[in-house]
UniProtKB/TrEMBL annotation:
GO terms for cellular component: cytoplasm; membrane. The keyword Transport does not apply. Residues 187-247 form the SH3 domain. GO terms for biological process: membrane organization. PANTHER family: ENDOPHILIN-B2 ISOFORM X1, SH3 DOMAIN-CONTAINING. InterPro entries: AH/BAR_dom_sf, BAR_dom, Endophilin_SH3RF, SH3-like_dom_sf, SH3_domain. The keyword Protein biosynthesis does not apply. Keywords: SH3 domain. Gene3D superfamilies: Arfaptin homology (AH) domain/BAR domain, SH3 Domains. Belongs to the endophilin family. This is Endophilin-B2-like.
Amino acid sequence: MNVPWDSFVCSVFLPSPRNSRLLVLPSPLHKPLGLDPCSAAPDFQETRPRNYVLSASASALLSEEVDKAEHELRVAQTEFDRQAEVTRLLLEGISSTHLNHLRCLQDFAEAQATYYAQCHHYMQDLQRELNRCANAVGVPQSSAAVCPNPVSSAFLSGPSSPGATVSSSSGQRTTTLTMEQTQLPVTGTRKAKVLYDYDAHDSSELSLLADEFITVYTVPGMDPDWLIGERGNEKGKVPVTYLELLS
């Protein structure tokens, strides 16, 4: 009988009157660790709990880092949205302020133009009234005719505001109209170009349209700020300041 190497032989002597028998009983023995290479393999049953703990710790740490990064991203996005809204409101405020400033400047220019135009008109009325008073008391017309018209000259020679009805170039050309008008012969006529529109206030005046040409002349005893204008069959008084006398 073959006996494995990891068993030992037990000799049992059975007393018998007739014979003796040697019994071989197998008995397992542990193999030496150095003799079996399979005995050096790790025990996965023992390392599995340890690996599970490490994996759980790593997962918890990664989850914590992800949550922290997401929180920081949400905070940054909220701050960016707030700054973007503030910037948008500021830009809208700048645009509205610019438009409001431009509108105020236009209103101011129109108010200034209206004010000085009214002042010019009132001073012309005052000068005509003074001339009529001078004629009533017997003051020679020549002395009244040579009276300066500083308001008209200052208004027309000064810089024009935006929105005014008189251009600066036209105003500069008409500053010498009063002097030229006084040099007109009593019976002579001249051509004149209308600088801007004029609406007649009564039947004795002639309405004018800008850029049209009319014939003008003066008569003895007439207000120096006015001329007699003719356009076809129409005739009436026209203000000197609305005309450019042509040579």
